[in-house]
Design brief:
heterodimer; A: about 110 residues; mainly beta; globular; B: about 110 residues; six-stranded mixed beta sheet; four-stranded antiparallel beta sheet; 12 strands; about 55% strand
Chain lengths: ~110, ~110
């Protein structure tokens, strides 16, 4: 099936540890996105990538890092510098062109204890 | 920087009532506008989008939205809501640089 796969669905980490969230798409989309969803704050853009080997900071990039070495993969690393990492993280992709629809993964709920 | 405002955070309606959810954006140039819906336990999915042309766009499940450029608005409407419309609704804007920005969302509860 075509779509976006985020893994794992639930993730627990100890404070001070870096953690990497996986996002894979088989839709052959050029653009990929990472959002953080918190209650009452909607979806806030962390990073986005328009094309392989290129990415830009979103509105809340501090404490996060990404890579885009392959078209189908856009992993997000939550570093120990992120002050409040516990959240629901959503990955999305789109064909390219600002009028195209974004497709979303099922999300990863990260809990840092 | 572009931003999106959704003024209604929670809306409660009875079945068959009419719905209008507000969305305003801040960006002076050309925009592409979207409404997404997140049903309980499901992925975000597209309801409708405005790219160009007719400012009144129709989407799935009887939803429509009107783009009013002079007001920087893209309000979502439905003449008669159903219990199954209970969900969270997000407005989003893409300004052409692939930066897709969302609003804070509106939780709609439709009582039977």
């Amino acid at each position: 099936d075509g779509g976006i796969t985020q893994s794992p669905k639930y993730l627990f980490r100890k404070e001070g540890q870096n953690v990497t969230l996986s996002c894979e798409q088989n839709l052959n989309h050029d653009a990929m996105y990472w959002y953080r969803q918190d209650p009452g704050q909607g979806l806030r853009l962390i990073y986005y990538s328009q094309i392989v080997n290129d990415f830009q900071k979103g509105d809340i990039a501090e404490g996060y890092s990404v890579s885009r070495e392959k078209k189908e993969s856009f992993p997000l690393t939550v570093t120990s510098a992120q002050k409040n990492p516990t959240a629901f993280y959503l990955c999305a992709s789109s064909q390219g062109g600002s009028g195209t629809e974004a497709f979303f993964g099922q999300g990863t709920r990260l809990t840092v204890v | 920087a572009q931003s999106v405002s959704q003024h209604n955070h929670h809306v409660i309606l009875s079945e068959a009532a009419s719905l209008e959810l507000g969305c305003n954006y801040s960006y002076g140039g050309t925009v592409n506008l979207f409404w997404y819906v997140q049903y309980p336990g499901q992925h975000l999915q597209l309801l409708l989008k405005y790219f160009s042309g007719d400012p009144l766009v129709k989407g799935i499940k009887g939803f429509e939205a009107e783009f009013i450029k002079s007001k920087f608005s893209f309000n979502l409407r439905k003449p008669s809501v159903q219990w199954s419309d209970t969900a969270e609704y997000f407005c989003a804007v893409n300004t052409g640089f692939q930066k897709l920005v969302f609003g804070t969302g509106t939780r709609l509860l439709v009582s039977p």
